[in-house]
Design goal:
heterodimer, A: mainly alpha, 21 helices, about 70% helix, about 0% strand, B: alpha/beta, six-stranded mixed beta sheet, four-stranded antiparallel beta sheet
């Protein structure tokens, strides 16, 4: 048996190798190159290890899939059919939402990578290659990563769901329908993004396109995250046919694909067949739009890219007038603001934190729009504001750790004329200005819906203290000018950050409950405010004291993995080779 | 005066710079020569404090340079070998940032930046991103940033790299003018012709060690060679360059 299994594996491997060998060499070489570059290198660390990144990406999705599958398989036996339908519908919808979120995030991270860029045109242009070979290799690379995402996210859930829905008799049919739906939803979303990008690339002048594209990337990021968090789950067929649901369903592609799945397995109520039709139409339009716009882009914009001038004039005027504090403060402020707004890597990284803030704000606004009267402050509002503050401050602190150009850092070292505490003090101001203050202002606007005013003022004061405390916590051992210190990949690993925010959320709940009680008793409130103020001042003094003896860090060196015995000690040699004609002084 | 006394730099136990000693005086241009990898840029970086010295001393005006590194940085202008700049800034923004980091007065620095941009023919492109600049334009930005604060010690690590003929001629005159105004100029270059024209004396480095340190005239007399190129070839070039060229041509012809 073992021999049979080995021979089967071996023959499958041979088959794949034969298939790959038959592909043109140019395609194979380009495909491999583009697969390693499929992630926007500007959006991630420049020295990112792409295969490792893809491995981690697949690992997270597989874990998600396993958890969902286990949740499905180990539920207690239930006879209530309506409940079971609701449960399956919930899982189906959440998986489609999640699949579309993953593909959306992939589209954001791989932004522009499928379109011809200047580097490709300049490097590959002089070589004997046709544009369609480049295009097909890029599409194949994107397809490979998306295929990986579909399989990793769905492999366990699809099996569990197919087994529960169809038993052994219909297992394969439901599995095929499920995977087809997921692939269709992915193609629809990715195709739509490519269509919009392609149309813009064709219609707009290249320079304008590059600027708009950068903004669109951030907008798409916010949109995908917001939709994922805001989209309701519909668990009953009767809710689908309500007139109030029609408008939402019209504009909600995840439900179209939910209907498509149910149509494929034959469980879609006839009243909802129009939703499945929308899915088919949307899929056709997105795939056709993406194909046509990509083809036209490769035929028309490649020449335009070569012809564009090397030097793009920028807008002037602002740099001379802007002043924020002293000269050093001004330099750090402008450098940080420009790095954050002009570097795609840093914009996308900060947008990740801001998108979560946006999702919280939008979910809050949605709830508020549904209520008509002014009401007292609620625990959920307090938790939301704490979370927003934490996300913004710690998110910006993480972005500050990503260098913009390590090789150019020498200028900071050459010009370091002021003591390190001045640099660190300016980093504190930047965190307060770019993260804590905007969140505080947004929270103040959201709080207008509550009464009495005294409670609003009280909470805003507490929130300000939390902003200060988060800022000081961010500055512990952070002796760096923003965007200038080397970043060691893996040091601030994703899992750690994720669980850090989970802990923040867990802590926010009791804090909010305590604060809500205190807001109704002035003595308790005064005690809490004084405690928070004391903690903030204490942390500030602690950081200030340590900054005095700190050294600014521009390079983080990895820990030595080889322990040297230091048996050989290098000493200056005593033998002198006299140089030719040493000039006596 | 800048003085290096038996300065060494070891990377993982290997000497990149090995007991280098020389001095550069005010009003003189000291040429610092050597083949690729001989330790010129490492020496420059040690003088600026960008990397630590393993052994030896670096003195500026008779005082160890690390005793008051901040004070010395104020009087030091450095043009690095590679044009490493922040590409997301414009030329004007970069120079303004450097001026602010050097704590130069607002108005005076703005005027100086405008003047330097005009003189280096960068004024029209001052608001364009450095990412779009040519190698020569980047080099001009580096030179302008190094001279912005009127430094006493000027360290130029291959400053002619990427410059067109006109700019190179201008820079040659500028280096001479800086020396005439009493500045200490340490100048590293592979352009031996330029070095021969403008340097008062040269220090030649080979495999991290100083193999010659004198005026060009005296080296010519001592080694009985007519040009600096000949002296350099004898002291620091190991391969038979003609034979290598023939081998390359043969290889691609085969």
């Amino acid at each position: 048996m073992r021999w049979l299994a080995r021979s089967r594996t071996s023959s499958m491997h041979n088959l794949i190798c034969k298939f790959v060998d038959r592909l043109p060499l140019q395609f194979r070489v380009l495909y491999r190159q583009f697969l390693l570059r499929i992630v926007d290198l500007e959006a991630l660390s420049i020295e990112a290890d792409i295969p490792r990144f893809l491995g981690q990406f697949a690992g997270v999705l597989m874990m998600f899939s396993m958890i969902n599958a286990l949740g499905l398989l180990i539920h207690p036996p239930i006879d209530n059919i309506a409940y079971l339908v609701g449960m399956f519908w919930t899982v189906e919808q959440r998986m489609i939402f999640t699949m579309m979120l993953v593909v959306g995030l992939f589209a954001v991270i791989s932004w522009d990578s499928i379109f011809p860029d200047r580097r490709d045109v300049m490097v590959l242009g002089p070589l004997p290659l046709t544009p369609h070979t480049i295009l097909i290799a890029k599409m194949a690379a994107s397809g490979a990563v998306m295929g990986l995402a579909v399989l990793a996210l769905n492999f366990a859930v699809s099996c569990a769901l197919s087994l529960l829905l169809g038993g052994f008799s219909r297992f394969l049919m439901i599995l095929a329908a499920y995977l087809f739906t997921m692939i269709a939803a992915s193609l629809f979303l990715y195709g739509s993004v490519l269509t919009v990008q392609g149309l813009m690339a064709l219609l707009l002048p290249r320079r304008v396109f590059l600027r708009v594209s950068a903004l669109l990337q951030i907008a798409a990021y916010g949109l995908f995250i917001s939709v994922y968090f805001l989209e309701p789950t519909i668990t009953s067929p009767s809710v689908f046919v309500l007139p109030a649901s029609q408008r939402m369903l019209d504009w909600s592609p995840p439900y179209w694909f939910f209907a498509l799945f149910n149509q494929l397995i034959g469980s879609l109520p006839p009243a909802l067949s129009w939703l499945a039709q929308r899915a088919w139409m949307g899929l056709g339009i997105a795939v056709a739009g993406a194909s046509i716009s990509l083809l036209l882009c490769y035929l028309r914009t490649m020449r335009r890219i070569v012809e564009e001038p090397d030097l793009v004039p920028g807008a002037g005027g602002f740099h001379g007038a802007a002043r924020f504090g002293g000269r050093l403060q001004n330099a750090i402020m402008l450098f940080s603001a420009r790095s954050l707004t002009r570097s795609r890597q840093h914009r996308v990284a900060y947008a990740f934190a801001l998108a979560l803030v946006l999702a919280i704000v939008l979910s809050w606004i949605r709830d508020e729009l549904s209520s008509t009267s002014l009401r007292p402050i609620t625990v959920s509002f307090l938790i939301s504001t704490f979370m927003m503050m934490g996300l913004a401050v710690f998110g910006l602190r993480s972005v500050f750790s990503l260098p913009i150009s390590l090789t150019a850092n020498w200028v900071w070292r050459i010009t370091q004329l002021a003591p390190p505490e001045k640099y660190i003090a300016q980093t504190r101001r930047l965190l307060l200005l770019f993260a804590a203050t905007p969140v505080w202002l947004v929270s103040a606007c959201l709080a207008l819906d509550f009464r009495p005013w005294s409670q609003i003022a009280g909470h805003l004061a507490v929130l300000a203290f939390f902003g200060w405390i988060f800022t000081e916590l961010s500055l512990i051992d952070f002796y760096k000018v923003p965007f200038t210190c080397s970043y060691l990949p893996g040091k601030s690993n994703f899992q750690f950050v994720f669980w850090g925010f989970a802990v923040l959320f867990v802590l926010a709940v009791p804090c909010a409950e305590v604060e809500l009680r205190a807001l109704q008793h002035s003595y308790q409130y005064a005690c809490i405010a004084a405690s928070l103020g004391g903690v903030a001042v204490g942390l500030w003094a602690f950081n200030r004291q340590r900054a005095r003896s700190a050294l600014l860090s521009f390079e983080e060196l990895p820990e030595e993995v080889i322990t040297t015995l230091k048996l050989i000690q290098v000493r200056p040699s005593t033998v002198e080779d006299e140089p030719v004609g040493r000039l006596s002084t | 005066m800048l003085e290096l006394r038996r300065v060494s730099k070891h990377f993982s136990g290997i000497a990149a710079v090995d007991q280098v000693s020389f001095s550069a005086r005010p009003g003189e241009i000291t040429g610092y020569l050597g083949p690729n990898g001989s330790g010129k840029s490492t020496t420059m970086k040690m003088i600026t404090g960008l990397i630590e010295v393993t052994f030896g001393e670096i003195l500026f005006e008779g005082r160890e340079i690390h005793e008051d590194l901040i004070g010395d940085k104020r009087r030091m202008g450095y043009v690095p070998e590679e044009p490493n700049l922040y590409n997301h800034l414009s030329g004007a923004e970069y120079l303004t940032m450097v001026a602010q980091l050097r704590n130069l007065p607002w108005r005076a620095s703005a005027e100086r930046i405008d003047g330097l941009l005009r003189l280096f023919s960068l004024y029209d492109d001052r608001h364009a991103g450095i990412s779009g600049y040519s190698k020569g334009m980047r080099q001009k930005i580096l030179i302008a940033a190094a001279l912005l604060h009127n430094p006493q010690l000027v360290l130029l690590d291959e400053p002619f790299s990427g410059l067109d003929v006109g700019s190179a001629l201008m820079l040659r005159s500028l280096i001479q003018e800086l020396a005439n105004r009493g500045k200490v100029v340490l100048f590293s270059s592979h352009e031996l012709d330029t070095v021969e024209r403008i340097c008062s004396r040269v220090v030649i480095l080979h495999r991290g060690k100083v193999v010659a340190d004198d005026t060009i005239e005296r080296l010519r007399t001592l080694m009985e060679l007519p040009t600096l190129e000949g002296i350099f070839s004898q002291l620091a070039v190991e391969q038979d360059t003609d034979a290598m060229a023939r081998q390359i041509a043969d290889l691609i012809h085969a």
